[in-house]
Amino acid sequence: MKHTKTYHSIEIETRHGLVNVEGPVSSEKLEQYDFHDDLVAFRPPQQQKKALVEIAKLEEGRIIIIRNNETVVGYVTYLYPDPLERWAEDPIENMIELGAIEVIPDYRGSGVGKKLLQVSFMDDAMEDYLVITTEYYWHWDLKGTGLNVWDYRKMMEKMMQVVGFEYYATDDPEITSHPANCLMARVGSRVESDTIERFDKLRFRNRFMY
Prior knowledge:
7 helices, 9-stranded mixed β-sheet, Aminopeptidase
């Protein structure tokens, strides 16, 4: 499969000024930008920058960013599932994972998270992919938002549904370890039934739940 990437960009006015939501961004471009000090959800900003640069170098890797001048204040990543996860056990060529989405606290509530997703799917090539995302409550900023797990999940689901993600049941132990965790997926318009069947087999190990 050829991983075609077409760059798109939009400008949004926020209470902190004009920002660009753009991507997929090349590793060379990412290298040139600063990463905001508040991008700490997964690892320190400089380490996160390094990780995103590496993802951008991958053939299937896609990074969409929110940029205020030369500073990245938010991003979303797409790449093949982690080899240690169940979702990589059958390497489906056109199944990628929304691996991480992060927006610094100052920009939350202004709709930029939704715009990250919308710009991601402006690229027609995304219609060739089945895109999955695994939502785990321990990654959520409950303290910073003041939301409980159920309200946060509702917010995440609502945001993902804007671009066509739907909830999918699974018996994956990490997801079933807490009722707020969930698996969502977006099936591109050109995804064939064989891909969906293989995904269904990954979702359930226990046949009686299939």
